[in-house]
Amino acid sequence: MIKRLKPKSEFSRNVLTLMTGTTIAQALPIAAAPILTRIFTPEDFGLFAFYFAIVSILAVLATARYELAIVLPKRKSDAYQIVILSWLIATAVSVLTFFFIWIFELQIINLLENPSLANWLYWIPMSIFLMGIYQSLYYWFNREKEYRNMANSRVIQSTAMVTGQVGFGTLTKLSALGLILGHVVGQIIATLYMASKFIRNTRKVHKPHKLKQIVLARRYVNFPKFLLVAHTMNATSHQLPSILFNILFSATVAGFYLLVQRVIGAPMTIIGGAIGDVFRQQASQAYAARGECVTEYKSTLKKLFIISVVPFVIFIFIAPELFAIIFGVEWRVAGEYAQILAPMFFIQFISRPLSVMFLIAEQQSKYLIIQLFLFFGIILSFFTGKDVKEVLILISFSYLLTYLWDLYLSHKLSYGIETKI
Predict the structure, then answer these.
(1) pLDDT (tens digit, 9 = 90+) per residue, 340-362?
(2) Of the candidates 139, 18, 151, which has an alpha carbon nearest to the alpha carbon of residue 71?
(3) pTM of the model as a whole
């Protein structure tokens, strides 16, 4: 399949660089999953899913989505100021989150009916801060076409995370906290790797400038104005199942769901993201020069389909058996979940990398409406489904409808057409 990407082209070389790194990075937790599923219980995975869901939702606020604007300015100095602006916002959000948790700790624990929250609640601000810093650096290196550093950072993060989780799991009795601490270790090491290279390459050329940061914050105000809400809705839609499965069903159910996300959703999302990173850079340049990027769009769409169709078919037919063999008999239920969610992962893999068209065409308001539709679809799924599997079917259907709509609109935008919802 990789040969179909035609490695001789610049696009394919860049994609392969990112795919190599991200494939290795994703292969590590997948390879470690059979070990982790024998160290930690489904309930431990469920509680970790709960933590990760909260962090992922709040992390969207960490930079106010200004990191997405880093690839857009013509001048590198302006992009640098946006990076620093993103760091400042991430620091402020993390500090505010810490004080919020400090003041309302007992109320949060009682509201969520989960006493074990006390063991890891204060790790949330740290994770939010690290996610904000890392994402802004990732987009900087994307702008600079430093695809090797981007790929290396993924591998470093994954290696440190897996090592930490296995280590904490085997050497301590921390249960779910071992999974959480391993995740934080991976974040710290990957962020330090990216930050050291960024500082080394920019400290003699660029300096922070508050006035320029204010001007640029106003210039790209549509990112927090529209995308902050849209991406918060998107993150909430993706992470809400982990939260609601914990609250409405059990941590064990949430643990099964997390394993599906880790084994199927994560690699498809990251590989698709590698293609999307390159598409973002090339489509942005083409759109600025020609007012359209339909050639780049169709080429990327074709590649995404070719890569995803075979895994999709495999999981439709034999997911339960695969999960039982690889992760242990008690995880067969997770394989049944994977069967139900396969259509969702398929359309998500194809559509999400191409959704950058809403940013390139500055049609963020339309993207917000799509994410609102998905958000309410997820909510409705939980309150109309009679049992876990029925809820999963409704979730899969909600994603399928939403991303088909997303794909239709992004395709029209690639022609330079201002389309209506």
Answers:
(1) 999 999 999 999 899 989 988 88
(2) 139
(3) 0.78
